[in-house]
Structures are given as structure tokens and as C-alpha cells.
Design brief:
Radius of gyration: 24 Å
CATH superfamily: MetI-like
Number of strands: 0
Number of helices: 10
Number of domains: 1
Order of helices and strands: HHHHHHHHHH
Shape: globular
Strand content: under 5%
CATH class: Mainly Alpha
């Protein structure tokens, strides 16, 4: 009999990637567990039903909002109004933020001029722009667009800037040897090399923009999911408020899935998927 001691079993690596089927099962188990806990609390009577409706009550109210107008419109019409505002604010943030970040990453003079102002403004929470939006635009589309822009703009600038500054030096040297102008350098070298960082920034920006939209609609809108929730709260209908929250969460999830699909497509084109 050998005197050697057997090596202890290596525990499963908790950080090991999970296959898609396992992820779906675990995600479904988490959702079912949450709904079961929610139902148990609602059924216990510890919280009045008016303030803690069951998942079934919220599902029924959600279905009712799809068919019957509340606060002037059905739920899907409120959602379309919200998505329209979101696309305007988010699109403007991307259209302005990405070029600005790339230019700041390439031109040191522009970086020195813009950075102090940008660093001061980016820490102002989007909701802090609500009083200005209400004063300047009232309940029109301009107010929510401004607030969405304020939330979505900083990640676009920061990640485009970071991507431009992290371009491999040999790529820049090669482009300079070929005599590329600054404009061609930005378009042909900086932009392609910064794409991964840009996509990551757009994903963060998309989520923050959607969150900012809902905050804006709670105060400076006359339609949209946030407005519907305000009216539900005024009617002391928790089920309506929760239905709005469900709609917000589902649309936010779809936005994130869409951006991740774009990210995967870009990585496949770059040979990294």
C-alpha cells in the first residue's frame, strides 16, 4: 500500500461558463421563485390587497390596459409614445456623443477644452434636468428628449474617448507613414479600433436612456408609461402602477437584447464571436 495521500477533489469552478439550456433553467427557476414569494406575501394578508395585489391581479390589470384606455390611451399606445421619445433622445445622444468622444480622443486641444465642462455636467443626475425641461419645453416632446439625452450622452462620450485612446500605437504609426489626414485617421483607424468600446458604451447608454425616460414621464409628460403610472398612483391602483413597471421592464429587456445582438454581430464580423 502506497503512503502517498490522494489529492483532494477540485471543486467545480463557480465562474465556469454555463451552457444556454442551464442558464434558461436557472433563470426560469429564479422567476418562478420570485412570483411564488410575491404570491405568498399577497395571499398572507399581511399587506392590504390594495397595496399588494397578487401576480394574477396584476396580469389581469395588464391585459385590461391593453384593451381599455386609461389616462387617455391603451397601454400599447402609451408604450409607443414612450418609445418615440426614447428613440429621439437616445439617437441624439449617440449621434453627438460618439463623434465627440472620438474627436476628444484624437485632438488633445479639444480634449482640454471640453473635459472640464463635460466632467462637471455628467455628474448631474438626469432627473435634475426635469425643472429646466419643464420650464423650457412644458409637457411637449422636447422636455423628455432633453432628459433622455442627459442620461444617455455621457456613456457614449466616455467609451468612444476610451476606445480612441486605447488604439494600438503601431496602427497609428502605420497610418501616418501612409500619409493619412486627420479625418481619414479618425474614420479608418480610430473608429474601427474603438468599435468594441463604443458598443459597450451604447449598451450602457441605452439602459440609462430608458431609465431616464421613465423619470421624465413621471413629471413632464402627458402620455407614456410613466404618465400612466402617475395616474394609477393618483387613482390608488397599485395594480396599474405595477403593470406599468412590468411594461417598462419588458421593453428595457428587449432593448438590451437588441443591443447585445448588435454587439455579437460586430464581434463576429471582427472574427471574435
Amino acid at each position: 500500500m502506497s503512503g502517498s495521500v490522494p489529492a483532494p477533489a477540485t471543486p467545480m469552478d463557480a465562474r465556469a461558463p454555463l451552457d444556454p439550456a442551464t442558464r434558461w433553467r436557472l433563470g426560469l427557476a429564479g422567476l418562478v421563485g420570485f412570483l411564488a414569494l410575491w404570491w405568498a406575501v399577497a395571499a398572507s394578508g399581511l399587506v392590504p390587497k390594495a397595496f399588494m395585489p397578487s401576480p394574477v391581479d396584476v396580469a389581469r390589470q395588464f391585459a385590461r390596459l391593453l384593451q381599455e384606455p386609461f389616462a387617455g390611451h391603451t397601454l400599447q399606445t402609451h408604450l409607443l409614445s414612450s418609445i418615440g421619445r426614447y428613440l429621439m433622445g437616445f439617437g441624439l445622444a449617440v449621434a453627438v456623443g460618439l463623434p465627440l468622444g472620438l474627436l476628444m480622443g484624437w485632438f488633445r486641444t479639444l480634449d482640454a477644452i471640453v473635459t472640464p465642462l463635460f466632467e462637471g455636467l455628467r455628474y448631474v443626475a438626469p432627473i435634475a434636468w426635469v425643472p429646466f425641461a419643464a420650464l423650457w419645453f412644458g409637457t411637449g416632446i422636447g422636455g423628455p428628449t432633453l432628459i433622455i439625452f442627459a442620461g444617455a450622452f455621457p456613456p457614449c462620450v466616455i467609451n468612444a474617448y476610451r476606445g480612441a485612446r486605447q488604439v494600438e500605437p503601431y496602427l497609428i504609426e502605420a497610418a501616418r507613414m501612409l500619409g493619412l489626414s486627420n479625418a481619414r485617421m479618425i474614420v479608418q483607424v480610430l473608429l474601427p479600433a474603438a468599435v468594441p468600446s463604443i458598443i459597450a458604451g451604447v449598451r450602457v447608454s441605452a439602459g440609462l436612456g430608458w431609465q431616464s425616460l421613465v423619470g421624465a414621464e413621471l413629471i413632464v409628460a402627458s402620455s407614456g408609461v410613466g404618465y400612466l403610472m402617475v395616474k394609477g398612483q393618483a387613482s390608488i391602483s397599485t395594480a396599474i402602477v405595477m403593470s406599468g413597471m412590468v411594461a417598462i421592464g419588458v421593453v428595457g429587456l428587449l432593448i438590451d437584447v437588441g443591443v447585445r445582438q448588435i454587439e455579437s454581430a460586430v464581434n463576429r464580423r471582427r472574427g471574435k464571436g
